[in-house]
Amino acid sequence: MRRLGFCFWLAVGWLAMMALVATFAPLLPIADPTEVAFGGPREAPSADAWFGTDALGRDVFSRTVHGARISLAVGGFAIVFGMVVGGGLGILAGYFRGRLDQGVGFVFFVLLSFPALVLAILITATLERSLLVVSLTIGILAVAPVGLLSRASTLVFAEREFVAAARVLGATHGRIIVRELLPNVVIPMGALTLLGMAVAVVAEGSLAFLGLSVAGDNAISWGKMIVDGSGLRDLQNAAHVTMFPVAVMFATVLSLNFAGDRIRQHFDVKELAF
Amino acid sequence: MRSVGVGALMAGDPLLSVRDLHVRFATERGDVNAVNGVSFDLHEGQTLAIVGESGSGKSVTAKTLMNLLPRSARVSGEVTYGGHDVRALAAAGTKHFFGVQMTMVFQDPMTSLNPVKRVGEQIAETLRYHLGRSRSEARSEAVELLDTVGVPEPARRVRQYPHELSGGLRQRVVIAMALACRPRLLIADEPTTAVDVTVQKHLLDLLDDLRRRRGMSMILITHDLGVARGRADDVAVMYAGRVVETADADTLFADMRHPYTEALLRSIPRIEDPVHHRLDPIQGRPPESIDPPEACAFAPRCAYAQSDCLNGVPELDGLLGLHRFACLHPTGTERGAAAMSANQAAGVTAAGMPVGGDR
Amino acid sequence: MARFVLRRVALLLAVLFAVTFLGFAAMNLLGDPLVNVVGVLAELDCDAIEAGTAEDTTVDAASRDCDTVAAARAEYHLDRAVPVRYGLWLGDMATGDFGTSFQNDQPVSQVIREKLPETVILLVMAQAVALGLAVPWGVLAAYRANRAFDRGSTVASFGLLSVPNFALGVVLLYLLALRWQIFPSAYESDSVSGLLFSMVLPALTLGLPLAASYQRLLRTDLITTLQEDYVHMARAKGLPPMRIMFRHALRPSLFSVVTVFGVSTGTLIGGSLVVEQIFGIPGIGREIVTAVIRDDFPVVLAIVMVVAVTFVVLNFLVDLLYSWLDPRVRAR
User: Fold this and answer.
1) What is the pLDDT of residues A23-70, one digit of tens each?
2) Which terminus in chain A has less CB density within 10 A, N or C?
């Protein structure tokens, strides 16, 4: 077992803190993120408002903390959805081959022929933008890359002796898939969860930036905060309104990528082609 | 200094001289001493064969001469070519030394040609860079060179890619490439190991012929003593990073002293052997080169091994340039005979290897 | 070779079919297209008006409201079932009629013609930035693998790959356009040089993270290639290190970069939606965002189609590029 290193634990620490803070945000002793005129408009960071205030005088620190909720919820849900649906389809396609494989392969190819963000705005623009819809949309984006990976590793394992042995012993398809393939395919994919989550968090941010993530004033998102503060005059006079969420988002994505990459190396899994 | 020429050497001065060469690699498990104090001289127009099993340090020695080792290698000792310190030349980035003065041919022709470049380009490249030939001059010289090394239809071959040629042809291309700038020293690292057996002799004869015609010197690296016989002027046998026996070829084959040399020779088939003759493989494996004990490295596999072989590394005795060997109980001597009969009587050597009664 | 091309073309057509059908179905089933074309007039009960049982509330006598509605229905085949409508739309597409934008009655083909060049310039510049940086960067990192420069650049590329491009865009805009005022903060089209200059920041925004990923791939592949015998052979031939790098090692090490080059175009197009927004570039990225929000489906579908064709064709070209990179592929 190679050591994961100090930086890995630093990244994990940051992620754990973000997860905790996001979960308990409403209980924390911080300002109401939607309270207009908590301070004056565009106030610089101070002891009262650590990250300053935005154009409407809302507390940027509190909004950044609350912004973690949607980002992490969407990111987490999306990658789990992608793993379950994409991973499942990939295993079925790789195990049964033939028609099913061709069909699934074509669906993956079509999904990958769309630039991911174009696909996402098509869906979120036509449906009501609830947390579930946005998560599902980004989850769908994860299906094809995860699916291709699980299909590829299923192909490898389906040829191995232990699967052949199980088949000779009269195991049913279902049993082989659940008992033999699932554990072998899922573990390496699991090692890619954090990396996939990083992509999902960025995707949510991009949607929010375009105004197409979760709708509503209460739905605070880093992407939305960044776009709100990125008008030329806002940037010129009150860069802190955007730069704090940018920094926090960067730290989070960096931590996800770094910890994810370490885990991937640790389990010696190939990189995922998003 | 942009380039190094070697004028007429003083009579008796070697072209290449290696003194006390050590090469160490730092690995995660500890230092590997790949080469342990190797010294030899090579005179103009002569061939030196370096013989040994894989892992004996012969290829590392060759790569050291050509400055091809990875940066992690730690090298000490002296390598001079025509009086110039080769490692200093390399460190100074001297142009037109490697490739023009000395060059090397590698073991596997499948991998030593660039798969994405036409073979003509690969030959012409050195001519253009070192000798300043124009594109068309270099092209026609490449065709001539291919002809020289016996490639049929050279004008067509120069336009082909390596994967379109057979293994034997590729090795001829590699030789043409190496010889393009008429180097004075060629290092051939197992030049025939990877090619078809039927082609091996042709290639060796070709190399020998070219060397003779061009007055070139050659270091022939091989695991096969048979290859060295008849082609080398001098032979150095390497084991575990050391030269264990060295002499001119006639002396060595007629009067070998080191049990390892003897074992090497016994392990190769010979034409004169009767049909169904049993070859004697060398027992055991080459030693681990991490933290070797202070003992003769061959002792664990040696039928002559005595207890004194396990106390300290035997020195390479004798004068440089004459017959030298590093053995306390050399074969063909009384000490050797005594050691052998003692071991046979005991049925086991001092290092614990069982010895059959009748060999 | 011919079979290869044919299979590719068949695949391309199948993908376009699937992509446009999905898009078409989504845009038609999830909202009422008639509302998008004629707005509130869609509420009118024209059958009743024609029959005289309801009052015609038309204000402008020159064009009756119900005529407008009927014209819209005919234009977009709105009285047919969705699959039929899709077939008719496809037929129109095949004859070069991309339809008319709901938004401003412009022909869609004209919208595309106006907006596409800006995006193409942006993407080409972004790829140029990415490759132009990544090749020397990757070569240097591999040449001195695991030394200070290489370690530093691993950290740097990791960082770049973790900045969402909208965040990078905003940061670059703030630093290079507002703080240090090196580049203009918004799109300019007065002159060609001005246009290109104003595209530098957007191109950097898209190109920098891509350069980082190219660099990492190239570095890894180069380090592997540098272990190859033919590189040792080139050194034994006495060629200088940089010549060996560029003439011998680089080309065989470009496979991963070329593969990602194809795929990354999709990522870049996605990124252009955001970047065109930040820097106010009137390209198809900004156009499709607007069109999607306004349910302007002829425009959306046309852009989706253009994007999908570009993407698939580009990846086909990438496959051809492999055989240039390695002549052994040609033999197969």
Assistant:
1) 888 887 777 777 776 777 777 777 777 787 777 778 888 888 888 888
2) N
> Nearest CA to B269 among B197, B352, B170?
B197
Work out the average pLDDT over C218-239: 90
CB contact under 8 A, C170 and A106: no
**Per-residue pLDDT tens digits for A208-267:** 888 888 877 778 888 888 888 888 888 888 888 888 889 999 999 999 988 888 888 887
d(CA A267, CA A190): 10
Measured distance CA(C298)–CA(B60) in Å, rounded: 69
| CB pair distance less than 8 Å for C159 and A254 | yes
Q: What does the domain layout of chain A look like in residue ranges?
A: 51-267
Give the number of other Cβ atoms within 10 Å of residue A117's Cβ.
25
Write down the pLDDT at residue C76: 73
Chain C residue numbers touching B164 (CB-CB < 8 A): 331
Greater pLDDT, A157 or C143:
C143
**pLDDT tens track for B224-252:** 888 888 889 999 999 988 999 999 999 88
Output the DSSP codes for C104-168.
T--BHHHHHHHHHHHHHHHHHHHHHHHHHHHHHHHHHHHHTTTSHHHHHHHHHHHHHHTS-HHHH
Chain C residue with CA closest to A272: the answer is C260
Pick from B106, B115, B130: CB nearest C326:
B115
List the one residue out of A15, A4, A6 whose CA is nearest residue A252: A15
Alpha-carbon distance of C332 to C327, in angstroms, equals 9
User: Is residue C332 scored above 70 in pLDDT?
Assistant: no
Chain A residue with the nearest C-alpha to that of C184: A232
Pairing assessment for the beta strands B102-105 and B185-189 based on DSSP bridges: parallel
Element (H, E) at A166: helix A161-168
Q: Which CATH superfamily is domain B14-95+187-268 in?
A: P-loop containing nucleotide triphosphate hydrolases (3.40.50.300)
CB atoms within 10 A of CB B140: 15
Strand order in the sheet with B217-222: B102-105, B185-189, B217-222, B47-51, B234-239, B242-248, B324-325
Per-residue DSSP letters for B13-28? --SEEEEEEEEEEEET
pLDDT of residue C205: 93
* Residue A7 φ then ψ, to 5°: -60, -35
**Residue B352: predicted pLDDT:** 83
Angle of helix C297-325 relative to helix C2-29, nearest 10 degrees, comes to 160
Domain with CATH 3.40.50.300 in chain B: 14-95+187-268
Domains and CATH numbers, chain C: 32-97 (no CATH), 109-331 (1.10.3720.10)
Whole-number pLDDT of residue B75? 92
What does pLDDT average to over chain A? 83
Domain at A51-267, CATH class: mainly alpha
Query: Does the beta-carbon distance from B115 to C325 stay under 8 Å?
Result: no
Contact criterion met (CB below 8 Å) for B302 and B286: no
- Residues of chain B with pLDDT below 70 are 1-11, 269-281, 283-289, 319-321, 356-359
Phi, psi of A49 (to 5 degrees): -120, 100
- Token readout for C24 is 């078409």
Distance from CA of A92 to the nearest CA of C (A): 22
The pLDDT value given to residue B273: 62
- CA-based nearest distance C324→chain B, Å: 8
Sign of CA dihedral C16, C19, C25, C30: negative
C62 by Cβ neighbours in 10 Å (0-12 / 13-18 / 19+) ranks as exposed
What ipTM goes with this model?
A: 0.84
**Do B305 and B297 touch, CB atoms closer than 8 A?**
no
Structure tokens at B335: 């000490």
Distances (CA, A) of C156 to A218, B7, C264: 36, 51, 20
